[in-house]
Amino acid sequence: MLEIRARNRAEENERRAIFLAQVSTAVAESMDLRDAHAVVVRRAIPTLGALATLIVVDGAKVRCAATAHVRPASQRLLSTMCAEYCHDPASPDIALRALRERQSLLIPVADGDTLRKNDLPPRQIDFFEALCVRSMMSVPLFARDAITGVLTFASDTRSYDRDDLRFAEAYAQQIGMVLQNITLLAQAREAIRARNDFLLLAGHELRTPLTALKLAIDLLRRRLIEPVLPPVQRVVDKIGQQATRLSRLIDLVVLAPLHGGRTPPLRIEQLDLCELVSDVIRDSADLPTRHACELRCSAERPILLQGDRTGLEVVVSNLLSNAFKFGAGRPVEVSVAGDGSRATLVVRDHGVGIPADRLPHIFERYERAASSANFGGLGLGLHIAAQIVAAHGGQIHVDSRIGEGSTFTVALPTATPIAISPV
């Protein structure tokens, strides 16, 4: 007899484990939190009872999120009862009592006398009698240490015992974790949506004055009286080039997160890396003065490659800015080399250096080479540079020692990057 009982108990435990796994999977596959709540109560019946209700904590309030009954004709009655009695946290309702006390409650015999002793109002007792409730149990849902809701089950055929309560608690524990994951995912999606909305707005607001600037430049070009003095022509051309560069920067930096964090499709053209580096250095002529550094550049012969001009200008500019910022007033050296299939850019400073424990993370978003208390910046420059280099099929690497400075090396293929759309 004992062996039979043990075997029956083992089989029952196995059935319950399978049931919990199946319900967890069904809830996890829900499209959103509202759908998940409905699945939680719907899948609980009839295994855990004739009816099931789910009350969730919503800030300082509580609300009935879902109800289910084995008899469709009783569903409306159950929903009405929950709507009337499951919204006040101070209510004597059994479920809300479990919520306040943060513990499970079992009522083996839920007759009128027992419910009156629990201070339930007469109308709610009438609801329970109309639903033929014989026994009840309420179990809280937790996410870590915070209580997030309470599940209530009722039977119309038998009395619950402690074993039933343990099963309901296992169900609540499993469901609580799944619902928390769905909640976190929904919050993450909402945060991404808000971020994307902001970036779209920022991109629009940045483009509006830029468009006006481009129109003004075109108008200026048309109104220049021939012959135009070379210095004037150079200034006008430079303004136009910088306006175009700003427009591309909006795509590369501001709107990049809208492409899943990846750099948008590059605009490929043949360019001379030596010339590009020299142009960036010339445009950044105030950096050495501002940081009291000496700039040494070794870029003498043409090194041709296929790449996005604006993107590579961002890479060079960010590396230069980083070198001057952390260069401690010492010389910054820039060199460009090529071997036919590969072009290499090296930016070396002799400044504060990067701690060894930060080196593996230096190209991550918001990572800084040194304390933000001593050096400004958002920690995005090196991350953006690394993203652009990777989009070109290249690699970026850093060697650094504290007090000796840092050397950033960028290696780029000279052929057209794979899977990149040309202009």
- What is the CATH-assigned architecture of the largest domain? 2-Layer Sandwich
At the fold tier of CATH, the topology name of the largest domain is Beta-Lactamase
Give the C-alpha Rg: 34 Å
Largest beta sheet: strand ordering? 2-1-5-4-3
The 3D shape can be described as elongated
Write down how many β-strands occur, each being a DSSP E stretch of 2 or more residues.
12
Helix content: 40-55%
Features:
423 residues, alpha+beta, Beta-Lactamase, Heat Shock Protein 90, five-stranded mixed sheet, 49% helix, transferase
Descriptive notes:
A five-stranded antiparallel sheet has the order 2-1-5-4-3, sandwiched between helices. The chain has helices at residues 2-28, 33-44, 72-85, 94-101, 112-117, 122-130, 162-223, 230-254, 273-283, 286-290, 309-325, 381-391, and strands spanning 51-58, 61-69, 105-107, 135-143, 146-155, 268-272, 295-298, 304-308, 332-338, 342-348, 395-401, 405-413. Helix 1 (2-28) packs parallel to helix 7 (162-223) and helix 11 packs antiparallel against helix 12. The chain folds into three domains: 2-189, Beta-Lactamase; 192-259; 268-413, Heat Shock Protein 90. The protein is an alpha+beta fold and 423 residues long. The longest helix has 62 residues, at 162-223. The protein is elongated and about 100 Å long. The N and C termini lie far apart (82 Å). Mean pLDDT is 84; it is low at 419-423.
